[in-house]
Design goal:
The strands form 4 sheets. A 7-stranded parallel sheet has the order 7-11-6-1-4-5-12, sandwiched between helices. The protein has a 5-stranded parallel sheet with strand order 14-13-15-16-17. A 3-stranded antiparallel sheet has the order 8-9-10, with no helix packed on it. With 329 residues, it is of the alpha/beta class. The protein has 9 helices and 17 strands. It folds into 2 domains: 177 residues, Rossmann fold, CATH 3.40.50.620; 126 residues, TPP-binding domain (Rossmann fold, 3-Layer(aba) Sandwich). It starts with a strand and ends with a helix.
Length: 329
C-alpha cells in the first residue's frame, strides 16, 4: 500500500497532543488539488480508541502502533517501530511536528531511509512543478527555500505555522483505523513517567496586558525596566522569550512561545524581541501588539500594530513617567 504522505502524530499517556491537528492542515496544503493518499500513525501504549476517533474526525486511514514503552515519548523506540511501516507504504513525505521529540525522530528516520530531512517548515509553494519548503534563519531575518533531492523526504512542521483544521471537509480517505503491536527495542533509556511542573499562578493567561522581555534587554538588571512598565497597568504580567528563560532570568512558567505558553492579552508589549517564529506563535493572537526594538528591520515589526525604534532603556522610563503623570493629573 503506497502512501503519498505519512503523518506521525504525538501522544502523551495515549492521548493526542493538541498540535497533532496541525499535521492535517499541513498535509492539505501539501497535497496538489487535495488528491493523494494519507496515513496517520498514532503511537502509544493503548491507542485503539484514539486511533478510531482520529480516523473518524480526520477522514483518513489511521494506524496505531502499540508498545508498553510508548506510553511516554520514546523517539528511539518509535523509530524502530516505524521502519517496517515506512518500508511497507513507501511515503513520498513523512511529516512530524518540530518538537524535541519530532526532531530526534526525524533525524533517525532520515538516516535509516537515506531520505532528505527538512526541519522547521513554515510555508509551502510550487516552483517549476516542484514542491519547495521555506523556513526562517537568524531570528527571522532570512528565509531559506529548500527542495528535497531524494525520493523520500522527512519534514518537521513548525507549530503554529499552519492553521489548525476547522470545519473544512475531510480529505479523501477511508477513515479506517488499524492497530498493530510492535516488537521493537530502544537502547539507552526507558521513560518511567512525566511530572507536570507546578505553577504559582495563572498570571499570563489571565493578564490583560503582558510586557515581555527578549534578548534585547541586554542583562538581567534591565528586567527592572520591564517590572516598572508592568506596574503602570492594571491586571498586567511580565513574560519573557526563550532566551531570557534559558538564562535563568525568569522562571519557565513566564515563557511565551512555541515551547512555552500561548497568550492572547488585550495588549502585548514586546521589549527587545526580534520576532523569531518560535516566539511569535505564542503571542500573535494578542489584540494589540506594540514592539520596541533598536533594529528597524526586526521581524517583530511585521506583526506589530505599533512599532517603536528606540532603545528600551530610553523609551520605557519615559513611558512609565508619562503614565504616572496621567494618574497624578
Amino acid at each position: 500500500m503506497q502512501t503519498d504522505i505519512l503523518l506521525i502524530a504525538e501522544t502523551i499517556e495515549n492521548e493526542l497532543t493538541p498540535l497533532s491537528n496541525e499535521l492535517i492542515a499541513f498535509a492539505r496544503k501539501l497535497l496538489p488539488n487535495k488528491s493523494g493518499r494519507l496515513l496517520m500513525v498514532i503511537p502509544g501504549q493503548a491507542v485503539q480508541q484514539v486511533a478510531e476517533q482520529a480516523a473518524e474526525i480526520f477522514g483518513i486511514p489511521v494506524l496505531g502502533l502499540e508498545h508498553d514503552g510508548l506510553r511516554y515519548p520514546n523517539p528511539p523506540l518509535l523509530a524502530a517501530g516505524l521502519q517496517p511501516v515506512m518500508e511497507e507504504v513507501s511515503p513520498s513525505f513523512t511529516c512530524l511536528l518540530h518538537s524535541t521529540r519530532g526532531c530526534q525522530l526525524a533525524t533517525s528516520l532520515s538516516v535509516k531511509n537515506r531520505a532528505s530531512c527538512i526541519t522547521a517548515i513554515e510555508s509551502i509553494s510550487q516552483e517549476k512543478e516542484q514542491t519547495v519548503f521555506k523556513r526562517s534563519l537568524f531570528n527571522g531575518k532570512f528565509v531559506m527555500t529548500l527542495a528535497p533531492q531524494t525520493a523520500q523526504a522527512i519534514l518537521t512542521i513548525l507549530p503554529g505555522a499552519f492553521s489548525r483544521i476547522g470545519n473544512e471537509e475531510p480529505p479523501p480517505g477511508s477513515g479506517e483505523a488499524e492497530v498493530r503491536k510492535i516488537d521493537a527495542r530502544s537502547a539507552g533509556f526507558s521513560p518511567k513517567g512525566l511530572a507536570e511542573m507546578e505553577e504559582s499562578d495563572n498570571a499570563l493567561e489571565e493578564a490583560d496586558v503582558i510586557v515581555s522581555a527578549g534578548r534585547g534587554i541586554g542583562k538581567q538588571e534591565n528586567l527592572d525596566l520591564i517590572k516598572n512598565a508592568v506596574s503602570i497597568f492594571s491586571n498586567a504580567a511580565m513574560a519573557g522569550s526563550r532566551t531570557v528563560i534559558d538564562q535563568g532570568w525568569l522562571p519557565y512558567q513566564r515563557q511565551v512561545g512555541e515551547t512555552g505558553k500561548t497568550v492572547s492579552p488585550r495588549l502585548y508589549i514586546a521589549c527587545g524581541i526580534s520576532g523569531a517564529h518560535q516566539h511569535v506563535v505564542g503571542m500573535k493572537n494578542s489584540q494589540w501588539i506594540v514592539a520596541i526594538n533598536t533594529d528597524p528591520q526586526a521581524v517583530i515589526f511585521s506583526i506589530s500594530d505599533y512599532g517603536i525604534v528606540e532603545d528600551l532603556k530610553t523609551f520605557l522610563p519615559i513611558l512609565v513617567e508619562k503614565k504616572k503623570k496621567m494618574f497624578d493629573a
